[in-house]
Protein 1
Amino acid sequence: MIVTLTPNPSIDRAVLIDALRRGEVHRATGSRIDPGGKGVNVSRALAAQGADTVAVLPSGGPEGHLLDELLDSAGVAHASVPVSGTVRMNISVLEPDGTTTKLNEPGPTLSEAEVAALLDTTLERSSSAGWVVGCGSMPPGAPTDLYAVLVRRVRERGGRVAIDSSGASFSAAVAATPNLIKPNHEELAELVGHELPMLRDVRDAARELVSDGIEVVAVSLGGDGALVITADVCAHAIAPISAPLSTVGAGDCMLAGLLHGLSTGHEPADALVTGVTWGSAAVTLPGSRVPSPADLAGIRAELTLDPDLSRAIR
Ligand SMILES: Nc1ncnc2c1ncn2[C@@H]1O[C@H](COP(=O)(O)OP(=O)(O)O)[C@@H](O)[C@H]1O
Ligand SMILES: O=P(O)(O)OC[C@H]1O[C@](O)(COP(=O)(O)O)[C@@H](O)[C@@H]1O
């Protein structure tokens, strides 16, 4: 069982247009909505593959009702904590060449009691979980150290915890030493405070974090695949996709696959292959649709345990 906590979930609306021109009226050629937020997407990706998961999230307002309904109809188990604010709507503008422009709202302001209820619900649901996963940004009102507290509370009980976030809440969580983190290229650079132009730089930055006590650092690198670093492994995997349709949620699917691999007893390098397969499959799908088993069938990830460290990262 994998429990996800998404303090700031969303309704994701993807709008397709021919080309984005600032200040002009655009006629959309298509649109779709999906339940969203990083932990919600991790749970959606796991549920789509038949894996046991529950998504913990705050839910309020009309968008909150819609989110609950969308999760119910997708068969994603969720524990929604009622809140007085309204769940946000995030918009992705997709162009035919794969360019994605995202507009993320700040989300509702949570009260102290609502934050406490979210944390308590997550911990209640986690008693028999293989992994507890905290993902995404903090809504207004949530303390910067929410993920750090989650890490400490799960680890005190002997559980395993993964975090995927950005900014101050991610740095605070990393300082509390989760078992696993999944930054993307930009988030890792932000975490270590300098640019990471080559795979060697990514590896070195991830190794620094491993030496601080994080067991698995998985770095997603967009079209350059992903790297997993542990105390004894440096593995790179890539599954190129010729015409990506939407990258929204690809990192969440990658994390879901990685955790699924680890929780079903695979070594980190093999779990990375599952992660990259799920992530690459996600970019072939519209909006933030998560891959079904059939969507994974044509994806082939290439794994190397001795990657070319001079590879420039886009
Ligand atoms: N353009 C792409 N081509 C092929 N795979 C991709 C592409 N973009 C993303 N992916 C896959 O999705 C994973 C996550 O993508 P990334 O953009 O790094 O995550 P995030 O959404 O967290 O920023 C990558 O590790 C890779 O497997
Ligand atoms: O919490 P944040 O950082 O605002 O991100 C939330 C957004 O990220 C997503 O989880 C998608 O993730 P990515 O676009 O980063 O792959 C959306 O579902 C959601 O709208």
Note: The longest strand covers residues 10-16.
Protein 2
Amino acid sequence: MKIFNEKFLQPVLDALPDGVYITDGNGVTVGVNSAYERITGLQRHRILGKHMQDLVRDGYISNSVSLEVIRERQPITRVQTIKGNRKIVVSGNPMFDENGTLEYVISSVRDVTALLRAKHAEEQLERILTVRKEYFIDVDVHTDKAGVLTGTNTRQCYRLAEKVAATDVKILIQGETGTGKTLLAQFIHDNSLRSAAPFISLNCAAMPEGLIEAELFGYTPGAFTGASSRGKEGLLDIANGGTLFLDEIGDLPLSLQAKLLKVIEENKFLPLGGTRFKNTNIRLITATHHDLKQAIADGKFREDLYYRLQVMPLDLPPLRKRQDEISPLLTHYLNHYAKRYNTEKALHPETLEVLIHYKWPGNIRELMNLVERLVLITERSEILPNDLPESIRPLVAHSDPYSSGSLKQQVGDLERELISNALSLYGSTRAAAASLGINQSTLVKKRQSFQSINKDKM
Ligand SMILES: Nc1ncnc2c1ncn2[C@@H]1O[C@H](COP(=O)(O)OP(=O)(O)OP(=O)(O)O)[C@@H](O)[C@H]1O
């Protein structure tokens, strides 16, 4: 033990960034430095003078490189896991005296947790980039300061919206549920001259007819049984000077469509039970997921109102047609929820691949809900494909028997079905081919052959 008590040596050892652990030739601990204490959390007074075997037995150390060096009489390096799931690299070196007797084992201990994490992150990034390349994912996605992400298929829509925001032109946003219609309407309002006035939103599908009418137009005191004795301001009053966003306008009952038309044409309305018209100055933005032309043909939507509302139609495509946005949206919301729940999470590249190919019927809202759930329930920091709900996980085609007939015919039918599904899902032959793992030219040839078979059948 004597040399390590020398006054000059301990400060030198303590100045080293790596941990140092020294035993004598029998395995008794004779010295450690400050970095060792810091890395392992073991204090020197608890281990000095103790035999390595006792330290392993008492659970201070999981296994001993020094004892291995004593047995093998040669340098040994091992990676070990210590408390807090930290990884350390321990290199033990024997020191012999002039007679070849083992005098000391000097081990250096380096904490490589951060290094491994960085390497892991780098590998992850590389794999993610490979996945993106493989599936032709354009990484040219922008996020504005309000956290709105736009990719190749939505940028045009947002640019157009920005251009017309300053005017009062009526905008009809079309898109499936959860595609961001409300967000786009809010974006238009925020970029308009009305941004300091209220942005009021009402979902016409969520309420019975009487209630929508009362909400929109308000009512006078005692207008109907159960009405408040003080009456109530309608949203047309509250939104005055600002923007009124009517979501799911296709579900507005016909009687209210007539009243809304009057508001648009004359900028005035009659509250329920009222006798005097009120003036209003609102910008109207509407949205729907219905095909309004079909609703007009079915007699459910007024044609004159339709043309009034859709002076500027804006289309928000479903998320399955915005494949380049899926990965950035996942990252965006993963960080958002990880921050909210004070944790760290990352997607395994295979999980990302599954999610990029998922159809997302509930669009961005579904994506957000899924990410929030995964952040909350996944125990590891990395989200694996198995952590996904079963409805999302399998990409196995469930198919009913397509036809009777020879095996060749049935395989042909199945192939045609898969190709046509991929084409309608991804919108282009390139993306459809990538999703099926075949060349674009192969897909085009197969499609042509299906078309000629169809003609022959006709
Ligand atoms: N481009 C985007 N970037 C980031 N988040 C988005 C984007 N588009 C939508 N979201 C988020 O997705 C969620 C759903 O969007 P939003 O409510 O605007 O959809 P919607 O089409 O109006 O849905 P619904 O028709 O069901 O009311 C919101 O929380 C919104 O912030």
Note: Residues 326 and 356 are 6 Å apart (CA to CA).
